Automatic annotation (TrEMBL):
Family matches, as InterPro entries: CarboxyPept-like_regulatory, DUF5686
Natural source organism: Christiangramia gaetbulicola
Gene3D superfamilies: Carboxypeptidase-like, regulatory domain (2.60.40.1120)
Presence of keyword Hydrolase: yes
Name assigned to this protein: Carboxypeptidase-like protein
Keywords, in A-Z order: Carboxypeptidase, Hydrolase, Protease
Listed GO MF terms: carboxypeptidase activity
Length: 818
């Protein structure tokens, strides 16, 4: 009771001593807002307006005089009192002064300053100027509302997010990390302590959001999964315009340089101010904002170290809340349009599993750096993971937090811990997080069973409708192993397929698992599946519908998975397969014709992502940011012993690269090579992913285009025992016709070359080789309507056909995002 009275008294007394007065500064003649106008309160207090000219000031006494100044405008003094509710200030331009500056200097003085800042960037960027450094950081991440209500009002009928947010603060997470940096090996964050109020398990999603990026010196500024053009990048003048606002009167004076995007519709940019040291042109402080459908504000602070002549980041705050509408802005890896904040999936729904977001909500993340060592030369352990969470980080005692908190842990923070638990239970939030995590891997959790969504329904010309059920047990069943399997039935071939297996977790942190399985199913002839690197779940597999050359197999397999480093994941498998044919085919080997045969195989597969960023938790390895290039490889050996009929080797290697640009255009490359030698039956050779049904009419060949398939190549037209393919896709930046209609044009070129020895060993089937080289090019116009688009491709080169329409393929395209 006493504490409640103290809280009420605190807020009541706060209202007596200070009054918040909102306002706006505009150009008196054009009525346009003046971004970052200077407001002087007394001798020591100074604030700047936001990019829309808005401001809030605290009136400490009954009557006060404040001064408004802005470069090129006449300075104003305004009297305000406790009766002032809103203040709009119109400032008058002084054109004569502006013209004098431009004539005398000849060039925009702000541009000269930015040129010097870019030139001195490597001397001022700590990651370039220092061989290594180390520091600790305390971060407090909050989702709250502006009303400041700390009372808990139960409302289980509201949507989950609405329930939490409308009743006051809805989420609080604290983190203490040690950051290590080596110029040769890069940076690493070691999470020493982590706690999330109300959750039994930490919400690791928060660590993956790049809420507080370290530096503004980089070419691209990554914030909330969105890349913005850097205001000090080499091409900064292409993306920004600059203006000097003022010079600070501090011990180390700084230029206040205002920057504003030039090409908002082409390149995502921030609007803000840089405090640039007048001597070294280093960043002393920075502020960036986005105002539109949402309000985003980022503040960077730096501390000067004279012994290094270097400004080092001291902290950062990031705040985001719904805006009043207006221009479309980029955030959360996409764009948010006017009036669409509640419907856009973003960071809040990632945490809470809800798309209902209160207009009163705000998200705030504050980081404070301390124990900074600019002479660190120590070793960085486990460099493969950019973020490594200590096993005891989630169970740190209160003494640890009291010793490491660099920011006040106030009354509202403490109240949050007491109330969020019941609110989360009322909204079933942890269940929604569980569903989102499972859906990311293509499953849906039902009790102790994760249902595999890819096994429910498929359709092909061979099987007709294929219905099934499958999945695996989850940690509710056991934390040491899972049971997995599926059963499915094709109504055209009238065959039941199934699989049953188990996975034993030897070490979850390193992904070390023992796998055992028994499977009876069909597989496309001449296909090559990587054990690692294949995404087995897809809403639609375009080629699957028209495949007509399968073989059936009974497989008995055992394997071991192990993640050597976060960037290198491997799997080894031994298996016995019993192969039978679904169509007329036989393999002539040593004078005997084989239609059915057994294989004894050993397979080693890997995926290597040297440039991707990973989060290493005590239980798993989570990819934070998928970067390219990445490499997938596999070697498979079949033995003519251990019950096998043939001795052969198959090798596959795939390199994928993607170049993303700030204007949302991108170029993709996929280079793959396959090589087989020994006693290879046709079922285990290679095809180049053909995706064209062999029908006379071009519209009867109409199908859905794939990502790395040859759209003009007919099924079963080519087989190879060695081949190489390259796929190049170049997507132009979207055509912004309206906010809801932004189609994307893609130009595609593909090439394949291969060969085949001893074709006469493969009986009852005719096919060609790729030794003359196969080429096709095409164009796609994607996202015309609800993810659908249209595409066309044309075949040319060594296998160009005489009839034009046989070389031409017309396709649907489909791009869906979960």
């Amino acid at each position: 009771m006493r504490s409640s009275l103290l809280i009420i008294l605190f807020f009541f007394c706060s209202g007596l001593f200070a009054q918040t007065i909102p306002g706006r500064v505009i150009n008196k003649q054009t009525k346009e807002p003046l971004a970052y106008a200077e407001i002087q309160l007394g001798e020591d207090t100074q604030v700047l307006t936001n990019i829309d000219g808005s401001f809030e000031i605290q009136l400490e006494k009954d009557l006060d005089s404040i001064r408004f100044s802005y470069v090129g405008y006449k300075t104003l003094k305004v009297q305000i009192s406790k009766d002032t509710r809103y203040l709009q200030v119109g400032m008058t331009p002084v054109y004569e002064q502006l013209q004098t500056v431009m004539i005398s200097d000849g060039k925009n003085p702000a541009d000269l300053i930015i040129e010097k800042a870019i030139k001195n960037r490597e001397k001022n960027d700590p990651e370039k100027a220092l061989p290594g450094f180390k520091y600790k950081a305390y971060t407090k991440f909050i989702i709250d509302n502006e009303l400041g209500n700390i009372e808990m009002i139960a409302d289980s009928t509201s949507a989950a997010m609405q329930t939490i947010i409308n009743e006051g603060r809805g989420y609080l997470s604290e983190r203490v990390s040690e950051h290590l940096y080596d110029q040769k090996r890069g940076g690493k964050e070691k999470v020493l302590g982590l706690r999330t109020a109300g959750f039994k398990d930490p919400v690791y999603n928060v660590l993956a959001m790049d809420i507080n990026p370290f530096s503004l010196y980089k070419k691209d500024y990554n914030l909330y999964k969105t890349e913005y053009a850097g205001p000090l990048a080499d091409n900064a003048f292409k993306n920004y315009e600059y203006r000097i606002l003022d010079t600070t009167a501090t011990e180390r004076p700084a230029y206040l340089v205002y920057f504003k995007p030039k090409r908002e519709k082409v390149v995502a940019g921030l609007e803000g101010i840089l405090y640039l040291d007048t001597v070294s042109f280093a960043i002393q402080k920075a502020k960036a904002q986005l105002l539109g459908a949402i309000r985003l504000e980022v503040n960077h602070t730096y501390k000067y170290y004279p012994e290094k002549d270097l400004w080092f980041p001291a902290g950062q705050s990031t705040k985001i809340r719904p805006g009043s509408g207006g221009k479309e802005i980029a955030v959360f890896g996409g764009t948010i349009q006017m009036g669409a904040v509640q419907q856009k999936k973003g960071v809040l729904s990632t945490i809470f599993g809800s798309e209902e977001i209160s207009r009163d909500i705000y998200l705030n993340s504050v980081t404070s750096n301390y124990e900074i060592d600019l002479d660190y030369t120590g070793k960085i352990e486990n460099p493969g993971a950019e973020i490594d969470i200590n096993e005891v980080a989630v169970s740190k005692p209160e003494e640890f937090w009291a010793a490491n908190r660099q920011l006040e842990y106030d009354v509202r923070d403490k109240a949050t811990e007491k109330k969020v638990d019941s609110l989360l239970k009322a909204g079933n939030i942890e269940r929604k997080i569980e569903v989102k995590k499972a859906m990311a891997s293509g499953s849906y959790p039902l009790g102790f069973w994760n249902v595999d969504l890819s096994k429910i329904f498929k359709f092909s010309n061979y099987e007709g409708i294929r219905l099934g059920f499958g999945g695996s047990t989850n940690d509710r069943f056991s934390e040491k192993y899972n049971l997995n399997g599926y059963t499915t039935y094709g109504f055209k071939d009238e065959v039941l397929k199934y699989s049953a297996g188990t996975q034993i977790y030897l070490n979850k942190k390193t992904g070390t698992n023992l796998n055992f399985s028994i499977t009876k199913d069909i597989q496309e002839a001449a296909s090559f599946k990587y054990l690692k690197g294949e995404n087995t779940f897809a809403i639609l597999v375009p080629r699957f519908v028209n495949i007509n050359f399968y073989y059936t197999y009974n497989r008995y397999a055992a394997g071991l998975e192990h993640r050597i480093t976060p960037k290198l994941d491997t799997q080894f498998q031994i298996a016995r397969e019993e192969i039978t044919q679904t169509r007329a085919y036989s393999f002539l080997h040593e004078g005997r014709s084989y239609e059915e045969y057994n294989l004894a195989k050993a397979t080693l597969s890997f995926i290597w992502r040297p440039f991707s960023k990973f989060l290493n938790t005590p239980e798993s390895n989570i990819i934070l940011e998928k970067e390219f290039p990445q490499f997938t490889g596999q070697i498979e050996q079949s033995f003519s012993s251990f019950g096998g009929d043939f001795n052969f080797t198959r090798i596959g290697f795939k390199a994928e690269h993607e170049i993303k640009r700030l204007d949302r255009s991108r170029t993709e490359f996929i280079l793959e090579g396959n090589y087989g030698f020994g006693d290879l039956p046709l079922t285990h050779t290679f095809h180049a992913n053909p995706n064209n049904p062999d029908r006379e009419n071009v519209f009867r060949r109409f199908s859905i285009a794939g990502r790395n398939s040859f759209e003009t190549m007919y099924y079963n037209e080519f087989f190879s025992d060695r081949q190489a393919t390259i796929h190049i896709r170049h997507q132009l930046r979207p055509f912004i016709i309206s906010k809801s209609f932004q189609p994307e044009m893609v130009f595609i070129t593909r090439y394949a070359i291969g060969d085949f020895d001893n074709q006469d060993k493969h009986q009852d089937i005719a096919f060609n080789t790729l030794n003359h080289g196969y080429a096709e090019s095409g164009i796609e116009l994607n996202k015309i309507l609800a993810g659908f688009g249209l595409g066309a491709a044309y075949r040319y080169g060594g296998y160009h056909l005489e009839r034009f329409k046989k070389n031409f393929a017309f396709k649907f395209t489909l791009q869906l995002q979960l």
